[in-house]
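Bit of a strange request maybe. I'm writing a small parser for structure token strings and I need a real example to test against, not something I typed by hand. Could someone generate the tokens for this chain?
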Amino acid sequence: MGNDIAGNLSGRIISNAKYRMIFIGLVIMAVGIFFVSLAVGRYNIPIFDTVAILLAQIFPIQPTWTQTMAAVIFNLRLPRTIAAVLIGGGLALSGAAYQSMFKNPLVSPDLLGVSSGACIGASLAILYSLGPVIIQIWAFIGGLVAVSITVAIPRLMHNSSTLMLVLSGVIVGGLMSSIMGIIRYVADADTALAEMVYWAMGSLANVDMIDLYYVAPCMLVAGFILLLFRYRLNVLSLGEDEAKTLGVDVRKVRGVIIVCATLLTASAVCLAGTIGWVGLVIPHLGRMLVGPDNRKLLPVAVVLGAIFMILIDITARSLTSAELPLSIITGLIGAPFYFYLLIRQRMSIT
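Reply from user aminoacidic:
Good idea to test on real output. This should exercise your parser:
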């Protein structure tokens, strides 16, 4: 069923046993990298002490670490590492869902305008000094408006080709960039403008536990719903008529997928700003590992996205004395990798 996804980068089919081995291996890798992220930085903490500090919250362990080590982990590194997991997994999951639903391997939250629309919504909320909950709501509305316009243009043109959808995303992205420029122009240079630039470049430096309390529940619920719908995504990939024959309410399923994927992207923007390439490249990497079946692809994409984002965050805060914006690193890695995929698979964009 998953083989019928248009533009699939890999026709690979693997057994359930092999899939379980790959998935368990990725989860173990993600857990290991999670602890490395807590230990590594400009202030290095021994990995044994890192694990002991966390376990001490549950078990009575005699301290062998300093209070500074514990403060660095709980106040700085733990919130941003959890955020990296949520953002990477969320963007990868939304990208895989969009690609499967639109049967288009070039689709991603970035190309559909979701990220830029969510960034505009968040920037407007920042401009009016609104709270984190309102920022998330406005980001979601902005992302939903952007993706709705992108999807509507091909329908108005009576052209549902891959190229038309990509061009629609370019049009909407250009429009959103212009609107974003206007918002920055009228923003206060001493307060709101600096925070807007933070959103545009992408960073986890300012994430704390309070931010996670607001955003994480929405991301977890939206992600869980998308994972529940992964079989229906397989059915949608067969075509609308076949899906209806199998008893799937196509309009309802598409609506749920768009809302959940957009909420994931908007929530990621709320936490760290605009981060490109994750939702485009990671699903393709997942297909190379487990094939196009969404029942296997979506869970793997979540774990791969989390691993990728944690590694990007470690690089951003460890490579130089000044922390690098996340979008710079994801672009430097994502663009060449995606170009490699295009060459390797000889994929046509039309």
